[in-house]
Amino acid sequence: MAENRAPEYTEGTPCWVDAQLPDVEAGKRFYGELFGWTFQEQPDLPSGAVRALKDGEPVASLAHKTDGRLPTVWTVSFATPDAEALCRRVRAAGGRIVSAPLPVGALGVTALVTDPGGAVFALWQPAGHPGFGRRHEPGSFAWVQLYTRDTEAANTFYGDLFHDALFGPDADPDFGRAPVSDVFPAEMPPHFLVHFAVEDLAATMEEVTRLGGRVQVPPFGTSYGTAAVVTDDQGASFALLRR
């Protein structure tokens, strides 16, 4: 087992990320070169979706965006032992269910929801697939930041929803909240920004540009490291993080 893999993710812990892309093959080329990922076809995943591996361990998945009206995005999944029950709590707390819990073969159950501010995130109830095989290492998930218009309301919503993961004795949240205007224009909608760890921020930004992506926000300091916001060559935003 990889050193940074949790044997069981506490409810509310980020446990997976996936990108919805118009062109999965182009995504494989971009992220394969950028992070050294290799890719594995998964019979349990929807048609065209692939699992990304770093040093043989699962770190993400790329899926084909089936509706052109939907954004090209990275989505974070939070672990839960019971997706149905958590969906009820999300709705009761003022969130919205975008896609009701749905089995993904023998891998687990997924659902897509929003918080009261409209930020979209996924839930993952694991079965055959517990989540990240590697994290906190170069080329793997490192952090997710919620950019929101009301941090106090967000802290209340997520604090109630994911209390143990955020505040429990074994808390390892990998999850922060900040005002949209800290980094983005004020009109930017609330959203989650997935961060991947890198060893050399400047060199990785140059590689993003070489591969057809762009730097959206140049490096800035945070409480959890130095980050830069970039987009891939299909417009999906993510962050690079140097700790």
UniProtKB/TrEMBL annotation:
Domain VOC span(s) in chain numbering: 13-126
Top-level taxonomic group: Bacteria
Family annotation (PROSITE patterns): VOC (PS51819)
Coiled-coil region list: none
CDD domains named in the record: SgaA_N_like
InterPro entries membership: Anthracycline_SecMetBiosynth, Glyas_Bleomycin-R_OHBP_Dase, Glyas_Fos-R_dOase_dom, VOC_core
PANTHER family (UniProt xref): CONSERVED PROTEIN (PTHR33993:SF10), GLYOXALASE-RELATED (PTHR33993)
Protein's name according to its UniProt entry: VOC family protein
Organism encoding this protein: Streptomyces fimbriatus
